[in-house]
Amino acid sequence: MMLHVPGVLNAAQVREVRAALDSADWVDGRETVGPQGAQVKRNRQLPEHSPVGRELAKGIQAAVLQSALFFSAALPLRFVPPLFNRYEGGEHYGLHVDGSIRSVPGTGERLRTDLSCTLFLCNPEDYEGGELEVVDTYGTHEVKLPAGDLILYPSSSLHRVKPVTRGARICSFFWLQSMVRNDEKRRMLFDLDQTILKLRARAGESEEAVALTSHYHNLLRMWSEI
Fold first, then answer.
1. Closest CA to 154 of 131, 177, 132
2. Which terminal Cβ of the chain has fewer Cβ within 10 Å, N or C?
3. Helices vs strands, H then E, count in the chain
4. Which CATH number fits domain 3-178: 3.40.50.2300, 3.40.50.620, 2.60.120.620, 3.30.465.10?
């Protein structure tokens, strides 16, 4: 399931993050991937242990967890702290799939990458090209969102970032392990949760809403891995 999560950061928060990134030291993005990824990756990133990046990552992760829509869709268990990349002057990232296991810097822990997230830190009109293309069983989807908005999609998806031909595309990106491993099960839980919210908004608390909530939690109890 792909999901657009709007307004993870507000305009003031985006400006604060961008100001910090403008004064940071970027490195060749190929330093952070294996041999296969290095063949198709052309961008710049903040190093994983950058003090600026680590401080910004704390704020972004906190903001993400405040989004009820994000939590409902992702059911997050563990995160790789957010990272930051920059594309300009024709830079791009060719078709690839994210690694299935990631290390959490500074902890010695590893997690399974169930979901990939890109948080846009500039507006579509600020640059040309740079669309995120995600390929799944329903076709190829192009994503280019307003600053502060996030796209969530399965890490098993092939995807790419098209060349940026004008301006700069600046984003935060990260991975997470979900409490529910299977994407279809997460989708069903998300649809059920959103239906319960709509039912309550329209009719208030009711026997039907309580019954559906019971089904939701029993399914989550059955399918979660924590």
1. 177
2. C
3. 6, 16
4. 2.60.120.620
